[in-house]
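User: Hey, my collaborator sent me this sequence without any context and asked if I could get a structure. I don't really work with proteins. Can you help?
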Amino acid sequence: MSLPWDDMEIGFEELHEACGTMISGDHEQASRDLGGLLPAVRERGPRWMEGLLHALLADVSGRLGDVTGGIEHFRTAVEIGWNDCVAAAAEPGLAALAAAPEYRQIYGRITVSPADLEELRWIHAERTNIDHDTSMMISENIGRKDSSPTEVPQTLLPTRTPNGLGVPAARALLRLRQRSQLHAVLTSDTLRRSHLTSMAVINNIGSSPFGGSGLGFGSPMMEAASSQALANSRAATRREAVRARAFCPTIGLSTAAAPAPAP
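Assistant: No problem. I've predicted the 3D structure and written it out in structure-token form, which is a compact way to encode the shape of the chain:
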């Protein structure tokens, strides 16, 4: 099965760019960027992308305090078939809409299969895991004495055929989170290498060409080797944790749509 962005007429890059301002916290610009994608998606699809954009716009509107606009986007997303009931309860902007009189009626129209619901719950949990792993890798970069790149283990996205439009939308957002993780860690690595280079220059100022070999205990080379060994150990532990939490669908779980659980 193709990944959810393989058949996107507007492309994964456009979605990534539009979501960038939302991730950075500039919700007003995010509203403009996401809204700017709607005309092309309405015309060319895919349908799940249209539902996702309206859901994201509902979330942004809720964060901005625009409950009326948020409810309209939420209504449209559900009418299209977006059914990520996990996001409806977990995302702050969508949760902010829950007090509106229309919210319960709109939410009540959401149906989702148990099989899709299982994957949606896993996807949202994995997004949280990614955020934690990213924070840990950046934190571990502080004080590292080696210049090697940080290994970033990532789980493969599920490939089962979904029953509703919420799953491909959630998979795309998970892929965005994985890309953001790679960028954040790469930036952290670049800063670490720059710092190490600067420190090497400073330490060499005024040094004697007849100084030590740099191979003794506490030397830069030994510190770098020790740092690399620790980084490798942490990477192995993280790699195993990512492998252990990979999505494993429950065999025999129903694929028939049912009312979404209460938020």
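In plain terms: The CA atoms of residues 153 and 236 lie 9 Å apart. You can pass these tokens on to your collaborator as they are.
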